[in-house]
Write a structure and sequence with these properties.
The protein has 123 residues and is mainly α. It has a single domain, classed as Cytochrome c-like domain (Cytochrome Bc1 Complex, Chain D, domain 2), CATH 1.10.760.10. Helix content is 50%, strand content 0%. The protein has helices at 2-21, 26-37, 70-73, 81-89, 91-94, 107-118. Helix 2 (26-37) packs across helix 6 and helix 4 crosses helix 6. The chain is globular.
Length: 123
């Protein structure tokens, strides 16, 4: 019993930095957004990709005036931390047939971009 409690406590202690790291920095995310997303997306205007202001909490394929691929139009998700993380990690795996091909393989970079998209600056 004591060993199991000690293992549980140590697991929490050593897991805490990894969990905290995945929380994301909106400041770093703003920079990453400009570097990685800005060529095709804008916060306030549709470009090659749809505008992103207010994307966190919005249903996929719902920006008025943007012509989505059928894959994205039919994707039945609301953008939240989990769905955005999955999307940024592999859009073509999440929605085969999408025209979005940019992948963000680094989990911390994804967490930072998501923190920015959910921040007041992006709403």
């Amino acid at each position: 019993m004591k060993l199991a409690l000690l293992v549980a406590i140590l697991s929490l202690i050593f897991a805490a930095p990894a969990v905290a790291q995945q929380q994301g920095s909106a400041t770093r995310g703003a920079t990453l957004y400009q570097q990685r997303c800005g060529a095709c997306h804008s916060m306030d205007a549709n470009r090659v990709g749809p505008m992103h202001r207010g994307v966190h909490g919005r249903r996929a394929g719902a920006v008025a005036g943007f012509r989505y691929s059928p894959a994205l139009r039919d994707l039945n998700v609301t953008w939240n931390d989990a769905t955005l993380d999955r999307w940024l990690a592999g859009p073509t795996r999440m929605a085969p047939g999408t025209t979005m091909g940019m992948v963000t393989p680094n989990a911390q970079d994804r967490a930072d971009i998501i923190a920015y998209l959910r921040s007041p600056a992006a709403h």
